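Hey team,

Sharing the Pilus assembly protein run so nobody has to redo it. Sequence (207 residues) first:
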Amino acid sequence: MIRAARHITRVWRDEAGTVLVELAVVLGLFVLMVFGVIDFGRLGFSYVLAEKATETAARMAVVRPAICQNVAPVVRRTLLGTLNLSVRNGTRCSDAPGVCRAPATVTCTGSAGQPQAAAILTQIAALLPVGAGPENLRFTYSYDPDLNRVGAPYAPIVTVEITDLEYQFISPLGAFVALAGGTDDGRLGTAFAFPSMSASLPAEDLK
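Structure output:
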C-alpha cells in the first residue's frame, strides 16, 4: 500500500514531457498569429490594389465608346425647349429648366464578348484578386445637367464598380486554430466575398 502511494506521488510530481506539451500549445498559437498576420496583410494590400484598379478602370471607361447599350448619343431638347426659341443649341442644360431631355441611367455588366470591357480588364487584372473576369465589372452611365448642353454629344457620369469577387486565403487558418486548441467552424481560412468598390468620373469623349 505504501509502495503504491509512493509510486503515485512520484508520477504526480514527474514533469518529464511537460515542455513538449507547452511547446505544442505555444507553437500552435505562434503559427496561427504569424499566418494570420500574413493573410490579413495580403487582404489589406489586395484592397488597396483593387481601389487603384477601380480608379484606372473609370479613367479608361470615360474615354472609350459606351460599353452599355442604349446610352444616348446626343442630348435632345424637350418639347418645352423646342418651343423656347431663345434657347439655342449649346445652352447648358442647367441654365434653363426643362430644356434638355434627361437621358435615362443605363447600367450593364461587362462580358468577354464586349471588347471595351475586355480591354479594361486586361489593364487592371494584375491588381485584382485571382479569378476576376469582365463579369466582375459593372458600368453605369448617369445624367448630370451641369455637364451637358442642348444638342451636344451626351456627356454622362461614368461609374465603374468592381463586384462579386472572392478573396482566397493562402494559409489554412482553420487548421491552425484547431492546432492551437480552438474550434474550426469551417469558415476561417476559406474564400469570402471581397468588398465591392466603385469610382466615378465625367465622360470626356465616348467616341
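Residues 1-202 form one domain.

Ping me if you want the raw files.
A.
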